[in-house]
Amino acid sequence: MDLTKFMTNKNEKPLDNIAINGGFTSIFRTIGCIGDSLSSGELESFEMGHKNYHDYYEYSWGQFIARDAGCKVYNFSRGGMSAREYLEGFADEKDFFNPDYRCQAYIMALGVNDVTGILGNSYELGTVDDINIQNYALNKPTFAGWYGAIISKYKEIQPHAKFFLMTLPRESSDDDNWRSLKIQHRELLHSFAEKYDNTYVLDLFEYAPEYDEKFKENFYLRGHMNPQGYLLTAKMTAAYIDYIIRHNMRDFKESGFIGTDLHE
Predict the structure, then answer these.
(1) pLDDT category, 259, cuts 50, 70, 90?
(2) What is the structure's pLDDT at 115?
């Protein structure tokens, strides 16, 4: 076996290889998924002329990863969630900052409901300059400030945890304004990865297939994904994390000690 091709192939892109049983994602025994409807397995029904939205967590990509990789995955998510609501009420109401639920890795998939105005929220995106690393209570009231505070709070709970920040994928239906917002969101997440240690970007905007009409015929149920779509997202997410680990092995050599006092 040529390990150089498996671990350090410079020509490999993050989603070139779909990992079997989660690949190296399975080194994390506990994972927290922080997000909105697309992290909650939300299925969109249409009855009597009205759309209805249902969070079916068993269909979430997080639970598909749990079943495939054999790890414990928490859905720290709900349909319609924003970074501001998560930080200022939802997480505390659900006790998601309880150290009993601390995880070795966190996947963060927030942004759609913060900066697009879809649900009446159109918060300023902000920059990493809105973040006070020493005291997140001083972060500015922007998406960047709230998102950064969420990372900081979980770092207090689990200092050596790994964070994977998910960008928004491209869609063929994106207008110029929406595409621009996604690019700005993507650039912001990359700047987070530079500011925080143990933080990486799952750049679906760059590497996931474009969600075009054919894609949505197969993987969408009206405005949200169907079970096949959430399973596909799970496979892409696990493959991307597997890729990051294989190409940064030294960063993850002590992952088994996350949650203990045993660190260099």
Answers:
(1) very high
(2) 76
Element (H, E) at 92: helix 91-93
Q: Which percentage of the chain shows pLDDT scores above 70? A: 97
φ and ψ at 126, to 5 degrees?
80, -175
Residue 9 burial (C-beta neighbours within 10 Å; 0-12, 13-18, 19+): middle
For residue 127, pLDDT beyond 70: yes
- Give the span between the Cα atoms of 126 and 131, in whole angstroms: 9
Task: Answer for the pair 32, 105: CB distance below 8 angstroms, yes or no.
Answer: yes
Q: pTM surpassing 0.85? A: yes
Q: Which long-range contacts (CB under 8 A, 24 or more apart) does 4-13 make?
A: 6/246, 7/246, 7/247, 7/249, 8/246, 8/247, 12/243, 12/247, 13/207
Q: What is the DSSP letter of 169?
A: P
224, 227, 230, 234 alpha-carbon torsion, rounded to 10° = 180
Give the tokens for residue 150.
């969420």
Look at residues 116, 224, 110, 237 and name the one whose alpha carbon lies nearest to residue 179.
Answer: 116
Q: Does residue 47 surpass a pLDDT of 90?
A: no
> What residues contact 54, with CB distance under 8 A and at least 6 apart?
42, 43, 44, 45
Q: State residue 119's pLDDT score.
A: 54
The CA distances from residue 59 to 53, 64, 154, 223, 247, in Å, are 14, 7, 25, 16, 30
**Treating both helix axes as pointing N-terminal to C-terminal, what angle do 227-246 and 61-69 enclose, rounded to 10 degrees?**
60
Q: In this predicted structure, what is the pLDDT of residue 150?
A: 98
If residue 44 lies in a helix (H) or strand (E), which one and from where to where? strand 42-47
Q: What is the pLDDT of residue 48?
A: 72
Q: Which of 81, 67, 144 is nearest to 110 (CA)?
A: 81
